[in-house]
Amino acid sequence: MKILEAVNVYKYFPIDIFGRKKIRAVDGISLHVASSETLAIVGESGSGKTTLGRILSGLVKPDKGKILYKGSSFNGFHGKVQMVFQNPDSSLDPSWQTYDIVSEAMNNRRKSLDSVAEVLELVGLNPAYITKYPHELSGGEKQRVAIARAIAAEPEIIILDEPVSALDASIRAQILNLLLDLQEKKGYTYVLIDHDLGRVWHISDRVVVMYAGKVVEEGKTEEVFQDPKHPYTIMLLSASTSNIPKPKINVSIQGELPSLINPPSGCRFRTRCPFAQEKCKVEEPQLYNVSREHEVACYNQF
Amino acid sequence: MKLLEVEDLSVEYHLPQGKVKALDNVNLTIDKGEVVGVVGESGSGKSTLAHAVIRLVKPPGKIVEGRILFNGKNILELSDEEIRKIRGKEISMIFQDPSSYLNPVYPVGFQVAEVYEAHENTNMRKLNGEVVSLFKKVRITDSEVRVGSYPHELSGGMKQRILIAMAIALKPKLLIADEPTSALDTTIQAEILSLLNELKEEYSLSILFISHDVGVVSEIANRMIVMYAGKVVEEGPAKRIVEEPLHPYTKALVLATKTTRKKKLFSIPGTPPDMLNLPKGCPFHPRCPYAKDSCKEWSYRMIRNHEGGVACAIYENTGSS
């Protein structure tokens, strides 16, 4: 069942006062998230994945296009979608105690010390943490509080924007295990935004690969990792130091993400693509199905 | 030939809350052309080690003990003037966050040229050609144009290349890289690593590579040092450490990076230690799955073998010392 859907969503950010120059952060994206699955969105920084996450959570309104929650329009699902951000230092109010942070997300009937303690227990913190301020917590504990705040609102969907990237290696595994645990217990749907392919391979069911504001490949994680079809996906897989399946062909990394103010004509990846042809300059490749659930936007076939 | 020898180095921070031993009797050697990786969590002392090597530990931190021999000279005994001549020229450094080490109001080419001016009194106007070829060396496209760019016009990966250009300008013998790729994308990280590898070959540069990511370090390092709570807990060839880690902490770090689909990751219980209040005995024992009562009493020592060593009570009788 599709629980959340983006239909042809655009978001441009103006960067001069006349609004003539715009950064095309999200440039016509459609995707869906199925109930209780983990959908990963991957791409380099600047690919638009964080903006897309914010649009999905309702924090940012798209310029064009629709977000559908269980088939109906966006309004009125407040609380059903929650977010966990990369840096708990900036997402937790330093002058609030854990109780305030977590209970703010609850509706008034449920606000009580007991219910906060219950939520904290779910994220592996004992009730003593209720009166602590963020500065008294370690990085991992802060992120647990941020997760507690997200689940206190009793959401169905949690958008995880690089949830462990800022944490120490040994703490990362604890937080990822906690997220897997919570999903098993509560059936949450996750949207994981991450640049680390090892983590994406580890916890996601499906993956969307973004490049310069567009989706270039999408499909089941196993299929996309074991049989990548887009040269950009292959390049990302080749660059990873995690132990994930190594692609059959090696696409070495060249150049950097193009300007999103003035993106290249045709295929946006062509400026870095070793397989680019004349055609790629002229016409933008559209997503097509290579198998039932695997889509790619590229003229080449690998 | 040994280029750098760190012997029994201890660094303390005197804070209002108490004394923190950020480095506790650390030993380390780097040969000419060798890449040594230092791995550990935040707070393990790895950055303090990097700063101590070029005597950049600032108060309240203080080097309280030890020797740092660079090319046979003890860095700790040099005058400020002498150490300034070594910094940037013979030992240079790159950092995690390139933006905070570039001046936002000067073109990057000018900032790189300053390195020559500071050490060789070269007239800056004559340097444009040198800087452009240096930019080419670190694979900056459109180098002629880029020398005139300001930091805000460049991406993170590009800024890191500028810092690398600055670091290698005077062909140093040792490069200290403190988490140089942690703030960068995976793709840019791979490029920076291959660039460092290339420069290492070309200049027979030695690199002290500091990172919290075992995977990244094993891509580039010949030898690896694992630090925990200011102490070296394991040392050896990088390949061996990744394939057969000995210390329980190293085992945990390596296991925590092994991802399997949808399975629980191995995770180290507990949190990194409170440096103000270190546990007695082996500092890792509260988190160690192999800990015995005797570990609380065990006094730290490195059990050495021909290729490195490990500091763990488990190997107390099996290793040769």
Helix proportion range of chain A: 25-40%
Counting DSSP H or I runs of 4 or more residues, the number of helices of chain A is 10
Estimate what percentage of residues of chain A fall within beta strands: 15-25%
Q: In CATH's first tier, which class of chain B applies?
A: Alpha Beta
CATH architecture name of chain B: 3-Layer(aba) Sandwich
- Binned strand content of chain B: 15-25%
Q: Counting H and I runs of at least 4 residues, what is the number of helices of chain B?
A: 10
State the share of residues found in helices of chain B, binned by percent. 25-40%
| Terminal CA distance of chain A | 31 Å
* Full CATH superfamily name of chain B: P-loop containing nucleotide triphosphate hydrolases
How many domains make up the 3D coordinates of chain B? 1
Commentary on this structure:
- The complex is a heterodimer of chains A (302) and B (321).
- Chain A has 302 residues and is of the alpha/beta class.
- Chain A has a domain at 1-80 and 193-279: P-loop containing nucleotide triphosphate hydrolases (Rossmann fold, 3-Layer(aba) Sandwich), CATH 3.40.50.300.
- Chain A is 29% helix and 24% strand.
- Chain A has 10 helices and 12 strands.
- Chain A has helices at 49-57, 88-91, 98-103, 113-122, 139-152, 169-186, 197-203, 221-226, 231-239, 278-282, and strands at residues 2-14, 22-34, 38-42, 64-69, 72-73, 81-84, 157-161, 189-193, 206-211, 214-220, 288-291, 294-296.
- Chain A has an 8-stranded mixed β-sheet with strand order 6-7-8-3-9-10-12-11, sandwiched between helices. A 4-stranded antiparallel β-sheet of chain A has the order 2-1-4-5, covered by helices on one side.
- In chain A, helix 4 crosses helix 5 (139-152) and helix 5 (139-152) runs parallel beside helix 6.
- The radius of gyration of chain A is 20 Å and the shape is globular.
- The two termini of chain A are 31 Å apart.
- Chain B has 321 residues and is of the alpha/beta class.
- Chain B has one domain (2-90, 172-315): P-loop containing nucleotide triphosphate hydrolases (Rossmann fold, 3-Layer(aba) Sandwich).
- Chain B contains 10 helices and 12 strands.
- Chain B has helices at 46-53, 80-86, 108-120, 128-137, 143-146, 156-168, 186-203, 214-220, 238-243, 248-255, and strands at residues 2-15, 18-31, 35-39, 61-70, 73-74, 91-94, 174-178, 206-211, 223-228, 231-237, 303-305, 308-310.
- In chain B, helix 7 (186-203) links the parallel strand 7 (174-178) and strand 8.
- In chain B, helix 3 (108-120) runs parallel beside helix 6 and helix 4 crosses helix 6 (156-168).
- The radius of gyration of chain B is 21 Å and the shape is globular.
- Chain A binds chain B through residues 44-46, 138-141, 168-174, 176-177, 180, 195-199, 201-203, 221-222, 235-236, 238-244, 253, 255-257, and chain B through 41-42, 141, 155-158, 185-191, 212-216, 218-219, 252-253, 256-262, 264-269, 271-272.
